[in-house]
TrEMBL record:
Topology class, membrane: Multi-pass membrane protein
Pfam families in alphabetical order: UbiA (PF01040)
Gene Ontology biological process: menaquinone biosynthetic process; vitamin K biosynthetic process
Residue stretches spanning the membrane: 12-34, 40-61, 89-106, 112-131, 138-159, 165-184, 213-244, 264-283
Native source species: Marinobacterium lacunae
Keyword Transferase applies: yes
Highest taxon, organism lineage: Bacteria
Subcellular location: Membrane
GO cellular component terms, semicolon-separated: membrane
The name this protein goes by in its record: 1,4-dihydroxy-2-naphthoate polyprenyltransferase
Enzyme Commission number(s): 2.5.1.74
Amino acid sequence: MNTIQNKYTFLHALRPFSFGVAVTTCLIGITAAWQEGVLIPLNALLVVIGGLLLQSGVNLINDYSDIELLSGEEGSACLIAAIRRNFRAGIGCFLLATPLGLYLVADRSMALLGLFALGLAGALGYTLNPVNYKSRGLAVVLVFWLMGVFMVVGSYVAVGGVLNRAIIAQSIPISLLVSLLLLSNELRDYESDRDQGLKTLTVRAGFTQAKRLYWLLMASTLIACLVLWVSGLLATPWPLLISLPFMIRPLRYLNTSAEQRRPLTPATGQLVMVFGLLFCFALN
């Protein structure tokens, strides 16, 4: 199976390595609520399940805009069929997450309804026309909010917390890494995206500038943690030191060929998962 065919298989489209985003962002919100003694266990379980369904849905619809690029090419019928199958599965994930979200809205706050609706709209607009903010070069910026800040804050409120500035500030480091993971995906696929005419941020800015942004996002994560610690919003930074080797590993792939760069995204996904879990310990 060649690289293009493999790209549209269900497992590849599901992108299991990115599940760390959903798990860690939800866990940070849950941990913050637990720390304050307001955690509702059932809601916490529903938040994690809903977060995984949302992440799965976003991943599975990710390639839908490729249909337009593939149409008319020889041998593209099977690829288009696979993309449509994945898209239907992604919509199914959103539908499964909907009743969970409605329960949390009814149990906690109507304000969550607006947050969930915004998150769903953002997920659908990721690759779907006429929005398609992936091809507009906006994905790295928007996932910071949609899959980062909103997930942490939404989880915190859904499991018993009350919206405040502290939880927003505490969501910044992991949100930067969520953007880093998306950027790693663009860096990995730079050549194929460029050849297919996909105007991602990396294609628009150029590979060299995107690499610099990768470094900047990683450094900004560390700086944000230091600021949280100094301001008293992070109990201790020391558990986060364990994540440093996981930060170094993906950097090795930035200056390699397209084929050798394939592990960049899984390595960045591991970083997100490890850092997020350690951040939960650092909050306490």
